[in-house]
Amino acid sequence: MLDKNVQIFDTTLRDGEQVPGCKLNTEQKLIIAEQLDILGVDIIEAGFPVSSPGDFKSVEAISKIVKHATVCGLTRSVENDIKVAAEALKYAKRARIHTGIGTSDSHIKFKFKSTREDILKRAFDAVSYAKSFVEDVEFYAEDAGRTDNEYLARVCEAAIKAGATVLNIPDTTGYCLPHEYGAKIKYLREHVKGIDNAILSCHCHNDLGLATANSIEGVINGARQIECTINGIGERAGNTALEEVVMILKQHPYLNLETHIKTEMLYGISHLVSDSMGIYTQPNKAIVGANAFAHSSGIHQDGVIKNRETYEIIDPKDVGVTESSIVLTARSGRAALAYRAKNIGYELTKLQLDEIYSNFLVFADKKKEVDDSDIHQIIETSKVYKEIISA
Length: 391
Ligand code: KIV
Ligand code: ZN
Description:
- The chain is α/β, with parallel strands linked by helices.
- The chain has two domains: about 5-275, TIM Barrel (Alpha-Beta Barrel); about 295-390, no CATH class.
- About 45% of the residues lie in helices and about 15% in strands.
- Helix 1 (about 25-40) packs parallel to helix 2 (about 55-65), helix 1 packs antiparallel against helix 10 (about 265-275) and helix 11 packs across helix 12.
- The protein starts with 6 loop residues before the first strand and ends with a helix.
- The relative contact order is 0.09.
- Bound molecules: 3-methyl-2-oxobutanoic acid (KIV) and zinc ion.
- 3-methyl-2-oxobutanoic acid (KIV) binds near residues 140, 168 and 172.
Protein backbone atom coordinates (compact mmCIF):
# COMPACT_ATOMS: atom_id res chain seq x y z
CA MET A 1 0.00 0.00 0.00
CA LEU A 2 1.52 3.32 -1.07
CA ASP A 3 1.73 6.24 1.33
CA LYS A 4 -0.48 9.27 0.53
CA ASN A 5 2.40 11.68 1.13
CA VAL A 6 4.23 12.93 -1.95
CA GLN A 7 7.76 14.09 -1.14
CA ILE A 8 8.66 17.47 -2.58
CA PHE A 9 12.25 17.55 -3.85
CA ASP A 10 13.20 21.11 -4.64
CA THR A 11 15.94 21.59 -7.23
CA THR A 12 15.73 25.39 -7.62
CA LEU A 13 19.33 25.68 -6.43
CA ARG A 14 20.64 23.01 -8.81
CA ASP A 15 18.56 22.41 -11.99
CA GLY A 16 16.88 25.81 -11.54
CA GLU A 17 20.14 27.64 -11.14
CA GLN A 18 21.37 26.23 -14.48
CA VAL A 19 19.32 28.94 -16.25
CA PRO A 20 21.63 31.09 -18.36
CA GLY A 21 22.54 34.36 -16.67
CA CYS A 22 21.09 33.61 -13.26
CA LYS A 23 24.04 32.71 -11.11
CA LEU A 24 23.33 33.07 -7.38
CA ASN A 25 26.02 33.70 -4.80
CA THR A 26 26.29 31.59 -1.65
CA GLU A 27 24.56 34.22 0.48
CA GLN A 28 21.53 34.33 -1.84
CA LYS A 29 21.43 30.52 -1.95
CA LEU A 30 21.45 30.37 1.85
CA ILE A 31 18.47 32.75 2.07
CA ILE A 32 16.52 30.68 -0.47
CA ALA A 33 17.48 27.38 1.21
CA GLU A 34 16.32 28.68 4.58
CA GLN A 35 12.96 29.71 3.11
CA LEU A 36 12.57 26.37 1.31
CA ASP A 37 13.17 24.62 4.62
CA ILE A 38 10.47 26.71 6.31
CA LEU A 39 8.17 26.19 3.29
CA GLY A 40 8.28 22.48 4.11
CA VAL A 41 10.05 20.89 1.17
CA ASP A 42 11.29 17.41 2.03
CA ILE A 43 14.55 17.57 0.08
CA ILE A 44 16.67 20.52 -1.05
CA GLU A 45 19.01 19.74 -3.93
CA ALA A 46 21.66 22.31 -3.04
CA GLY A 47 23.99 21.93 -6.01
CA PHE A 48 26.52 19.84 -7.92
CA PRO A 49 29.54 20.00 -5.59
CA VAL A 50 32.22 18.77 -7.99
CA SER A 51 31.22 21.29 -10.67
CA SER A 52 33.00 24.28 -9.11
CA PRO A 53 34.55 25.41 -5.82
CA GLY A 54 31.66 27.89 -5.47
CA ASP A 55 29.07 25.13 -5.77
CA PHE A 56 30.96 23.02 -3.24
CA LYS A 57 31.02 25.92 -0.81
CA SER A 58 27.29 26.58 -1.25
CA VAL A 59 26.33 22.93 -0.68
CA GLU A 60 28.50 22.82 2.42
CA ALA A 61 27.08 26.09 3.78
CA ILE A 62 23.49 25.00 3.07
CA SER A 63 24.15 21.65 4.80
CA LYS A 64 25.09 23.55 7.94
CA ILE A 65 21.96 25.70 8.19
CA VAL A 66 19.07 23.50 6.99
CA LYS A 67 17.10 22.28 10.00
CA HIS A 68 14.42 19.93 8.67
CA ALA A 69 14.86 19.00 5.00
CA THR A 70 17.27 16.44 3.61
CA VAL A 71 20.12 18.18 1.78
CA CYS A 72 21.13 16.59 -1.49
CA GLY A 73 24.10 16.93 -3.84
CA LEU A 74 24.22 15.84 -7.47
CA THR A 75 26.96 13.70 -8.99
CA ARG A 76 27.72 11.80 -12.16
CA SER A 77 28.49 8.08 -11.87
CA VAL A 78 32.09 9.04 -11.22
CA GLU A 79 33.91 8.15 -8.00
CA ASN A 80 35.48 11.57 -7.51
CA ASP A 81 32.10 13.34 -7.94
CA ILE A 82 30.62 11.10 -5.27
CA LYS A 83 33.53 11.56 -2.86
CA VAL A 84 33.39 15.35 -3.27
CA ALA A 85 29.59 15.40 -2.79
CA ALA A 86 29.92 13.35 0.40
CA GLU A 87 32.51 15.82 1.67
CA ALA A 88 30.27 18.83 0.88
CA LEU A 89 27.32 17.17 2.63
CA LYS A 90 29.15 16.08 5.77
CA TYR A 91 27.51 18.73 8.02
CA ALA A 92 23.95 17.95 6.89
CA LYS A 93 21.51 16.61 9.52
CA ARG A 94 20.13 14.42 6.73
CA ALA A 95 22.27 13.95 3.62
CA ARG A 96 21.44 12.42 0.25
CA ILE A 97 23.73 11.73 -2.69
CA HIS A 98 22.00 11.92 -6.07
CA THR A 99 23.99 9.93 -8.58
CA GLY A 100 23.14 8.53 -11.98
CA ILE A 101 23.86 8.03 -15.64
CA GLY A 102 22.17 8.39 -19.04
CA THR A 103 20.19 5.27 -19.97
CA SER A 104 18.58 6.03 -23.34
CA ASP A 105 20.14 4.44 -26.43
CA SER A 106 21.08 7.89 -27.64
CA HIS A 107 22.99 8.69 -24.41
CA ILE A 108 24.62 5.26 -24.33
CA LYS A 109 25.72 5.36 -27.97
CA PHE A 110 26.70 9.02 -28.46
CA LYS A 111 27.46 10.43 -25.02
CA PHE A 112 29.17 7.42 -23.48
CA LYS A 113 30.08 5.43 -26.64
CA SER A 114 29.25 2.44 -24.51
CA THR A 115 26.89 -0.52 -24.20
CA ARG A 116 23.79 -1.23 -22.15
CA GLU A 117 25.63 -3.85 -20.07
CA ASP A 118 28.43 -1.42 -19.24
CA ILE A 119 25.94 1.32 -18.21
CA LEU A 120 24.13 -1.17 -15.99
CA LYS A 121 27.41 -1.96 -14.22
CA ARG A 122 28.35 1.72 -13.87
CA ALA A 123 24.96 2.46 -12.33
CA PHE A 124 25.39 -0.36 -9.81
CA ASP A 125 28.94 0.69 -8.95
CA ALA A 126 28.03 4.36 -8.48
CA VAL A 127 25.17 3.60 -6.09
CA SER A 128 27.33 1.10 -4.16
CA TYR A 129 30.11 3.65 -3.82
CA ALA A 130 27.69 6.40 -2.72
CA LYS A 131 26.28 3.99 -0.10
CA SER A 132 29.74 3.78 1.45
CA PHE A 133 29.26 7.47 2.48
CA VAL A 134 25.53 7.94 3.15
CA GLU A 135 22.48 5.77 3.74
CA ASP A 136 20.19 7.83 1.50
CA VAL A 137 21.17 7.45 -2.16
CA GLU A 138 18.99 8.54 -5.06
CA PHE A 139 19.73 7.15 -8.51
CA TYR A 140 18.75 9.03 -11.70
CA ALA A 141 18.38 7.36 -15.09
CA GLU A 142 19.00 10.41 -17.26
CA ASP A 143 16.74 10.56 -20.34
CA ALA A 144 14.51 7.87 -18.83
CA GLY A 145 11.68 9.49 -20.81
CA ARG A 146 13.24 8.11 -24.00
CA THR A 147 14.62 4.90 -22.47
CA ASP A 148 12.78 1.72 -23.32
CA ASN A 149 10.86 0.46 -20.31
CA GLU A 150 12.32 -3.05 -20.23
CA TYR A 151 15.91 -1.83 -20.06
CA LEU A 152 14.95 0.96 -17.65
CA ALA A 153 13.46 -1.65 -15.32
CA ARG A 154 16.76 -3.59 -15.38
CA VAL A 155 18.73 -0.44 -14.51
CA CYS A 156 16.32 0.35 -11.66
CA GLU A 157 16.69 -3.21 -10.34
CA ALA A 158 20.48 -2.88 -10.36
CA ALA A 159 20.28 0.44 -8.51
CA ILE A 160 17.97 -1.06 -5.86
CA LYS A 161 20.29 -4.06 -5.44
CA ALA A 162 23.13 -1.61 -4.82
CA GLY A 163 21.03 0.12 -2.15
CA ALA A 164 19.28 3.05 -3.88
CA THR A 165 16.50 4.48 -1.71
CA VAL A 166 14.98 6.62 -4.49
CA LEU A 167 14.78 6.04 -8.25
CA ASN A 168 14.55 9.21 -10.28
CA ILE A 169 12.91 8.79 -13.70
CA PRO A 170 13.73 12.03 -15.52
CA ASP A 171 11.99 13.09 -18.68
CA THR A 172 15.16 15.04 -19.35
CA THR A 173 14.09 16.41 -22.73
CA GLY A 174 10.43 17.01 -21.84
CA TYR A 175 9.34 14.66 -24.63
CA CYS A 176 6.79 12.36 -22.96
CA LEU A 177 3.04 12.80 -23.11
CA PRO A 178 1.30 12.52 -19.73
CA HIS A 179 -0.24 9.10 -20.43
CA GLU A 180 3.17 7.78 -21.59
CA TYR A 181 4.99 9.09 -18.53
CA GLY A 182 2.28 7.69 -16.24
CA ALA A 183 2.50 4.32 -18.02
CA LYS A 184 6.28 4.29 -17.55
CA ILE A 185 5.92 4.75 -13.79
CA LYS A 186 3.21 2.07 -13.66
CA TYR A 187 5.40 -0.31 -15.66
CA LEU A 188 8.29 0.19 -13.24
CA ARG A 189 6.04 -0.34 -10.23
CA GLU A 190 4.83 -3.61 -11.75
CA HIS A 191 8.07 -4.98 -13.18
CA VAL A 192 11.02 -3.90 -11.02
CA LYS A 193 11.98 -6.49 -8.41
CA GLY A 194 12.35 -4.91 -4.99
CA ILE A 195 10.47 -1.74 -5.99
CA ASP A 196 8.80 -1.57 -2.59
CA ASN A 197 12.24 -0.81 -1.13
CA ALA A 198 12.54 2.44 -3.09
CA ILE A 199 10.53 5.56 -3.90
CA LEU A 200 9.93 6.40 -7.57
CA SER A 201 10.53 10.06 -8.35
CA CYS A 202 9.24 12.26 -11.20
CA HIS A 203 11.69 14.74 -12.70
CA CYS A 204 10.04 16.40 -15.69
CA HIS A 205 11.17 19.15 -18.02
CA ASN A 206 8.83 21.56 -19.71
CA ASP A 207 9.93 21.59 -23.36
CA LEU A 208 6.37 20.87 -24.52
CA GLY A 209 4.66 22.58 -21.60
CA LEU A 210 3.88 19.19 -20.02
CA ALA A 211 6.17 19.06 -16.98
CA THR A 212 3.40 19.61 -14.45
CA ALA A 213 0.92 17.28 -16.18
CA ASN A 214 3.57 14.55 -16.45
CA SER A 215 4.53 14.82 -12.78
CA ILE A 216 0.89 14.54 -11.74
CA GLU A 217 0.41 11.47 -13.96
CA GLY A 218 3.56 10.08 -12.34
CA VAL A 219 2.20 10.31 -8.80
CA ILE A 220 -1.23 9.06 -9.86
CA ASN A 221 0.58 5.97 -11.16
CA GLY A 222 2.63 5.31 -8.04
CA ALA A 223 5.57 7.73 -7.86
CA ARG A 224 5.89 9.36 -4.42
CA GLN A 225 8.36 12.16 -5.03
CA ILE A 226 8.21 15.13 -7.39
CA GLU A 227 11.35 17.07 -8.35
CA CYS A 228 10.49 20.67 -9.07
CA THR A 229 11.59 24.30 -8.87
CA ILE A 230 10.02 27.53 -7.68
CA ASN A 231 8.35 29.29 -10.64
CA GLY A 232 9.29 26.27 -12.80
CA ILE A 233 12.66 27.80 -13.60
CA GLY A 234 15.29 25.52 -15.10
CA GLU A 235 17.19 24.49 -18.23
CA ARG A 236 15.58 25.55 -21.55
CA ALA A 237 11.79 25.72 -20.95
CA GLY A 238 12.25 24.86 -17.28
CA ASN A 239 11.27 22.18 -14.79
CA THR A 240 8.02 21.24 -13.10
CA ALA A 241 6.78 24.24 -11.08
CA LEU A 242 6.60 23.42 -7.36
CA GLU A 243 3.65 25.76 -6.73
CA GLU A 244 1.63 24.10 -9.50
CA VAL A 245 2.00 20.47 -8.42
CA VAL A 246 1.46 21.35 -4.77
CA MET A 247 -1.74 23.29 -5.48
CA ILE A 248 -3.05 20.63 -7.89
CA LEU A 249 -2.77 18.01 -5.14
CA LYS A 250 -4.35 20.37 -2.61
CA GLN A 251 -7.25 21.36 -4.88
CA HIS A 252 -8.02 17.74 -5.82
CA PRO A 253 -8.31 15.96 -2.46
CA TYR A 254 -10.04 12.92 -3.99
CA LEU A 255 -6.61 11.94 -5.44
CA ASN A 256 -5.71 11.19 -1.81
CA LEU A 257 -2.21 12.62 -2.23
CA GLU A 258 -0.73 15.34 -0.06
CA THR A 259 2.46 17.29 0.63
CA HIS A 260 3.96 19.06 3.66
CA ILE A 261 4.12 22.44 1.91
CA LYS A 262 2.89 25.57 3.75
CA THR A 263 1.08 26.93 0.73
CA GLU A 264 0.58 30.43 2.21
CA MET A 265 4.33 30.94 1.61
CA LEU A 266 4.21 30.25 -2.14
CA TYR A 267 3.69 33.80 -3.36
CA GLY A 268 6.47 35.22 -1.16
CA ILE A 269 9.02 32.59 -2.09
CA SER A 270 8.18 33.00 -5.77
CA HIS A 271 9.10 36.69 -5.46
CA LEU A 272 12.23 35.92 -3.49
CA VAL A 273 13.47 33.53 -6.20
CA SER A 274 12.59 35.76 -9.15
CA ASP A 275 14.15 38.84 -7.50
CA SER A 276 17.32 37.00 -6.47
CA MET A 277 17.79 35.44 -9.90
CA GLY A 278 16.67 38.48 -11.85
CA ILE A 279 14.18 36.30 -13.71
CA TYR A 280 10.85 37.92 -14.30
CA THR A 281 7.75 35.74 -13.77
CA GLN A 282 5.20 35.94 -16.59
CA PRO A 283 2.03 37.74 -15.37
CA ASN A 284 -0.23 34.86 -16.41
CA LYS A 285 1.89 32.24 -14.59
CA ALA A 286 -0.39 29.82 -12.70
CA ILE A 287 -0.61 30.38 -8.92
CA VAL A 288 2.07 33.08 -8.55
CA GLY A 289 1.77 35.33 -11.63
CA ALA A 290 0.70 38.95 -11.09
CA ASN A 291 -2.59 38.24 -12.89
CA ALA A 292 -3.34 34.85 -11.30
CA PHE A 293 -6.06 36.42 -9.12
CA ALA A 294 -6.85 39.55 -11.16
CA HIS A 295 -10.16 40.01 -12.93
CA SER A 296 -10.61 42.61 -15.63
CA SER A 297 -13.59 41.81 -17.82
CA GLY A 298 -16.98 43.14 -16.69
CA ILE A 299 -18.73 39.75 -16.64
CA HIS A 300 -16.00 38.11 -14.55
CA GLN A 301 -15.75 41.06 -12.17
CA ASP A 302 -19.47 41.04 -11.54
CA GLY A 303 -19.33 37.27 -10.86
CA VAL A 304 -16.36 37.51 -8.47
CA ILE A 305 -17.83 40.44 -6.54
CA LYS A 306 -21.04 38.42 -6.02
CA ASN A 307 -19.13 35.25 -5.11
CA ARG A 308 -15.37 34.79 -5.45
CA GLU A 309 -15.71 31.12 -6.40
CA THR A 310 -17.60 31.99 -9.60
CA TYR A 311 -14.27 32.53 -11.33
CA GLU A 312 -11.65 31.39 -8.82
CA ILE A 313 -10.80 27.81 -7.86
CA ILE A 314 -8.16 28.82 -5.30
CA ASP A 315 -8.59 31.18 -2.36
CA PRO A 316 -5.75 33.69 -2.95
CA LYS A 317 -4.99 33.68 0.79
CA ASP A 318 -4.10 29.97 0.51
CA VAL A 319 -1.05 30.89 -1.58
CA GLY A 320 -0.16 34.10 0.25
CA VAL A 321 -1.94 36.63 -1.97
CA THR A 322 -3.95 39.06 0.20
CA GLU A 323 -7.02 39.22 -2.03
CA SER A 324 -8.33 38.90 -5.57
CA SER A 325 -7.96 42.10 -7.52
CA ILE A 326 -10.57 43.83 -9.58
CA VAL A 327 -8.64 45.63 -12.30
CA LEU A 328 -10.41 48.61 -13.84
CA THR A 329 -10.08 48.91 -17.61
CA ALA A 330 -12.40 50.02 -20.41
CA ARG A 331 -13.85 46.50 -20.36
CA SER A 332 -14.95 46.77 -16.72
CA GLY A 333 -18.59 47.17 -15.78
CA ARG A 334 -20.54 49.22 -13.24
CA ALA A 335 -20.25 46.54 -10.55
CA ALA A 336 -16.45 46.73 -10.63
CA LEU A 337 -16.40 50.53 -10.55
CA ALA A 338 -18.86 50.64 -7.63
CA TYR A 339 -16.77 48.02 -5.78
CA ARG A 340 -13.49 49.89 -6.23
CA ALA A 341 -15.10 53.26 -5.41
CA LYS A 342 -16.51 51.75 -2.20
CA ASN A 343 -13.02 50.45 -1.26
CA ILE A 344 -11.76 54.04 -1.25
CA GLY A 345 -14.73 55.46 0.62
CA TYR A 346 -17.45 56.36 -1.93
CA GLU A 347 -20.85 54.70 -1.53
CA LEU A 348 -22.60 55.47 -4.87
CA THR A 349 -26.33 55.39 -5.60
CA LYS A 350 -27.48 53.88 -8.89
CA LEU A 351 -27.93 57.31 -10.52
CA GLN A 352 -24.56 58.58 -9.28
CA LEU A 353 -22.91 55.43 -10.57
CA ASP A 354 -24.51 55.92 -14.03
CA GLU A 355 -23.05 59.41 -14.21
CA ILE A 356 -19.59 58.43 -12.97
CA TYR A 357 -19.46 55.31 -15.14
CA SER A 358 -19.82 57.31 -18.37
CA ASN A 359 -16.92 59.60 -17.27
CA PHE A 360 -14.96 56.52 -16.27
CA LEU A 361 -15.31 54.97 -19.77
CA VAL A 362 -13.96 58.11 -21.43
CA PHE A 363 -11.02 58.09 -19.00
CA ALA A 364 -10.38 54.34 -19.36
CA ASP A 365 -10.27 54.58 -23.15
CA LYS A 366 -7.30 56.90 -22.79
CA LYS A 367 -5.53 55.10 -19.94
CA LYS A 368 -4.99 51.33 -19.97
CA GLU A 369 -5.61 50.73 -16.26
CA VAL A 370 -7.54 53.02 -13.92
CA ASP A 371 -6.08 53.20 -10.40
CA ASP A 372 -7.41 54.54 -7.09
CA SER A 373 -6.11 58.08 -7.62
CA ASP A 374 -7.81 58.11 -11.06
CA ILE A 375 -11.12 57.09 -9.42
CA HIS A 376 -10.77 59.95 -6.95
CA GLN A 377 -10.17 62.34 -9.83
CA ILE A 378 -13.11 61.05 -11.89
CA ILE A 379 -15.46 61.39 -8.92
CA GLU A 380 -14.15 64.76 -7.78
CA THR A 381 -14.59 66.29 -11.26
CA SER A 382 -18.07 64.82 -11.79
CA LYS A 383 -21.39 66.74 -11.65
CA VAL A 384 -22.52 64.54 -8.73
CA TYR A 385 -19.47 65.04 -6.49
CA LYS A 386 -21.14 67.50 -4.09
CA GLU A 387 -24.14 65.23 -3.78
CA ILE A 388 -21.88 62.22 -3.05
CA ILE A 389 -19.89 63.90 -0.30
CA SER A 390 -22.89 65.52 1.36
CA ALA A 391 -24.70 62.17 1.70
O1 KIV B 1 16.95 16.40 -16.27
C1 KIV B 1 17.71 15.52 -15.81
O2 KIV B 1 17.82 14.42 -16.31
C2 KIV B 1 18.49 15.88 -14.63
C3 KIV B 1 19.28 14.78 -13.96
C4 KIV B 1 20.71 15.17 -13.81
C5 KIV B 1 18.63 14.41 -12.67
O3 KIV B 1 18.45 17.02 -14.18
ZN1 ZN C 1 16.68 18.10 -14.97
